[in-house]
Amino acid sequence: MKKDTILVLGSGGQIGTELITALRNSYGTSQVIASDIKPNTNDTGPYEIINVLDKARIAEVIDKYKVTQVYLLAAMLSATGEKFPEKAWELNMNSLFYLLDMAREKRFDKLYWPSSIAVFGPTTPRIETPQHTITEPTTIYGISKLAGERLCEWYFLKHGVDVRSIRYPGLISYTAPPGGGTTDYAVDIFHQAIKNGFYTSFLSAGTRLPMMYMPDAIRATMEIMDAPAENIKIRSSYNLSAFSFTPAELAHEIRQYIPDFQVFYKPDFRQQIADSWPQSIDDTEARKDWGWKPQYTLPAMVKDMLDNLKKQLK
Ligand code: SER
User: Fold this and answer.
1) Distance 301 CA to ligand 1 centre (A)
2) Which of 1, 78, 202, 211 is the most exposed place for a label (fewest CB within 10 A)?
3) For position 52, what pLDDT does the model report?
4) pLDDT digits 0-9 by tens, 48-100
5) What is the CATH class of 6-170+212-239?
6) CA 117–ligand 1 middle distance (angstroms)
7) Hey, what CATH topology would domain 171-210+244-313 get?
8) Which residue in the list 141, 174, 199, 238 is annotated as catalytic?
9) Where exactly are the structural domains of the chain?
10) What residues are in contact with ligand 1 under a 6 Å CB criterion?
11) pLDDT tens-digit readout, 116-140
12) With 90 as the cut, is the pLDDT of residue 198 above it?
């Protein structure tokens, strides 16, 4: 077992649910403290209720357990953020500020904070989007992630804070549902395909977006946190890529297993968000600096999702 005591803020979300399990497998259950804004009676290890806007409460839990690493996963995603811009800004920015400050004060050693393909915008080159390129996001979520990236780099350069970050593509998983994102269709479509045999997509048939299966995303997260500090050359956030597809292409793959599956298209306000994001991502730097390599292809992901969801829904 590895040493370190880890606090995961936002452990009840789509990423947190699976990251907690993976971290507890590597570090031991008692070494990984799960936390979210609501009580969780299903959690099998240490659990604390924390609102990430309550700085004193975060500090109290860090000190209580002598935490050495923090993963800050609580955030408001792109679609919900457009509806509640002030709340999104407050939640996404203040929580990061608090944690970066506590890391600067050496209350703990290492911070993980997720960024997103949402830092890119309509003026960004959309195919094989490079690490260093135009970032003019047009969503509040994207603006908060871009500002967050700049903050992370500033805290590293000025104060030596060991903060690490990945620009996740859309994440697909069967354990916990995503909430309020533009890429959420790529999860919901599986549930509806199994339950009803049809799905109405809020993105158009040809909307291509970069995506990743959760086991790859969890592995990437743990790998970047495990890498020697000197290998982490980018202290804003790393591009990360696995595969890209459109709703029509995903439906085609699902039809290999559910031949009568039908999809209808009814784009809503999220179409404009998706249209402002890249279609594919160049992740050369992550591969070079800390050895990133995705394992799941689109067909492998679809098979695994359907196998697991069918078991779950039975
Ligand atoms: N998947 C997120 C969203 O759609 C992007 O980070 O908002």
Assistant:
1) 18
2) 1
3) 98
4) 999 999 999 999 999 999 999 999 999 999 999 999 999 999 999 999 999 99
5) alpha beta
6) 8
7) UDP-galactose 4-epimerase; domain 1 (3.90.25)
8) 141
9) 6-170+212-239, 171-210+244-313
10) 77-78, 116, 118, 141, 168, 170, 181-183
11) 999 999 999 999 999 999 999 999 9
12) yes
Bridge partner residues of 36 (DSSP): 49
How many angstroms separate the alpha carbon of residue 27 from the centre of ligand 1?
Answer: 29
pLDDT(1) > 80: no
Kindly give the number of the ligand 1 atom that is closest to the alpha carbon of 178.
Answer: 1
Residue 185 annotated among the catalytic residues of the structure: no
